[in-house]
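User: Can you recover a sequence for this backbone? Please restate the input before giving your answer.

Assistant: Of course. Working from this structure:
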């Protein structure tokens, strides 16, 4: 069928401060958990990234020109509080006022996250989310932002709690690079939920004008092949990746079913979870106060039962077929031969988005209103040799990907799921945490050497769909 966007649909592009801004050492900015780590790793640098710190007016104009009406950005905590707490740096505060003004003036609504994978280095060294003192600092930083940036009406607390916990402590591809440190991972999940809930409660108690929610990336888990023991592995992985966080966010409790599965994983890994007195009251209070839910979706996983020790290889280079993942007490990732994959071994399966939208809306009505806050396709893309200023970069694969995922979203919507927006990951090409600069997602191509922007075919497609709202 011919797609038509519903009237008033939020049609945006997503960014994250550290992945686009560059300028990591200017205007008093403090280090994040990434600066020294990336330097030591020596693969790629976060400077200049997409030089958004200086070129945001150009990217916002392009957004307007290509039919977007919204943008996701995040505030870099350490531009405002270089150590995570203390006295705010005026230059950082001014930058965000300038950025937000530009968006609003151009009719692009900013949706702002407070934390997108970029903990201050000082707090990271002191335990990051595992240290409860750092939750206090996060709440103080959030309060500062609510008081200061009153032009912002759409907030998200934390982006992808699971990706952080999982990449830091299970997969080992984010600092501090622990592998299968199950105690830290589950504790980070819980503590980040607590941080989110405290900020939501503060926002509502403070009577701030605007809306607030959080962002989870959801990865539906399917048994492959379908049989009983594989289904159990899928249930275990789902509890660890999805249900624990969804329960905590929208029910304010971890259901018995979820905890039974989580406890099975903890026991198998000699791990434990520390829930302190009062924690669950905080989660409970916040659980009905989220105004909306940001859902990121890239791919599902297919799993089979697995009895051995944990081992993995993370494909951060785009050498297709090199990834492997076997999690003791949970299961192992398997390749479903019927499902295409990207060079980074990500499964391409739009039906997974339909499934997860239906599940969230049925099982978690307190999610209220859903925005797809990230979805997109990473590709290796190059400028043609005879490139000219107005060359359109062909990315039909991306168009096809987004088209199929929009199909799934609109189908779910037709069936009553309250999904009202879509932010493509990503607005422009940017730096990818564990993959660097050769994994491109943007509507706008960036020649990182010159910072020149080129239009991709997907941007034209995005505009054509935007026009269906008129
Ligand atoms: C999400 C993050 C983004 C982004 C995206 C693509 O998990 O919120 O910051 O990077 O995934 O992932 P990657 O860059 O690893 O391909």
């Amino acid at each position: 069928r011919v797609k038509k966007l519903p009237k008033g649909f939020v049609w945006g592009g997503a960014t994250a401060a550290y992945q686009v801004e560059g300028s990591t050492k200017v205007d008093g900015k403090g280090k994040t958990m990434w600066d020294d780590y990336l330097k030591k790793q020596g693969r790629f640098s976060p400077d200049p990234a997409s030089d958004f710190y200086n070129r945001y007016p150009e990217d916002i104009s392009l957004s307007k020109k290509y039919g977007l009406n919204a943008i996701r950005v995040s505030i870099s905590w350490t531009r405002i509080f270089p150590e995570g707490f203390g006295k705010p740096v005026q230059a950082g505060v001014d930058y965000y006022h300038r950025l937000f003004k530009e968006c609003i003036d151009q009719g692009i609504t900013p949706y702002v996250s407070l934390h997108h994978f970029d903990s201050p280095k000082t707090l990271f060294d002191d335990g990051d989310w595992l240290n409860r003192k750092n939750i206090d600092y996060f709440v103080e930083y959030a309060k500062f932002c609510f008081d200061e940036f009153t032009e912002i009406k759409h907030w998200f607390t934390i982006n992808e709690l699971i990706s952080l916990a999982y990449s830091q402590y299970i997969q080992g591809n984010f600092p501090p690079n622990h592998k299968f440190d199950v105690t830290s991972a589950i504790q980070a999940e819980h503590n980040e939920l607590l941080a989110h809930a405290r900020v939501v409660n503060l926002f509502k108690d403070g009577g701030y004008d605007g809306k607030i929610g959080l962002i989870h990336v959801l990865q539906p888990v399917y048994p492959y092949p379908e049989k009983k023991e594989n289904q159990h592995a899928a249930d275990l992985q789902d509890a660890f990746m999805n249900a624990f966080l969804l329960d905590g966010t929208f029910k304010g409790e971890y259901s018995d079913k979820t905890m039974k599965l989580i406890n099975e994983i903890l026991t198998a890994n000699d791990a434990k979870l520390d829930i302190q007195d009062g924690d669950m009251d905080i989660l409970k209070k916040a659980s009905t106060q989220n105004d909306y839910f940001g859902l990121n979706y890239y791919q599902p996983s297919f799993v089979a039962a697995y009895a051995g020790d944990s081992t993995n290889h993370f494909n951060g280079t785009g050498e297709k077929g090199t990834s492997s993942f076997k999690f003791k007490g949970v299961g192992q990732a398997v390749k479903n031969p019927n499902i295409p994959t990207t060079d980074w071994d990500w499964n391409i399966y739009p039906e997974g988005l339909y499934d997860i939208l239906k599940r969230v809306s049925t099982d978690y009505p307190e999610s209220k209103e859903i925005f797809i806050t990230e979805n997109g396709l990473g590709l290796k893309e190059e400028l043609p040799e005879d490139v000219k200023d107005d060359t359109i970069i062909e990315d039909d694969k991306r168009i096809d990907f987004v088209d199929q995922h929009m199909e799934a979203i609109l189908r779910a919507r037709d069936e009553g799921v309250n999904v009202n927006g879509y932010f493509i990951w990503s607005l422009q090409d940017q730096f990818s945490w564990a993959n660097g600069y050769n994994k491109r997602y943007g509507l706008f191509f960036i020649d990182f050497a010159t910072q020149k922007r080129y239009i991709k075919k997907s941007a034209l497609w995005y505009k054509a769909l935007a026009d269906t709202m008129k």
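That completes the design. Residues 10-218+283-299+336-467 form a domain with the TIM Barrel fold (CATH 3.20.20.80).
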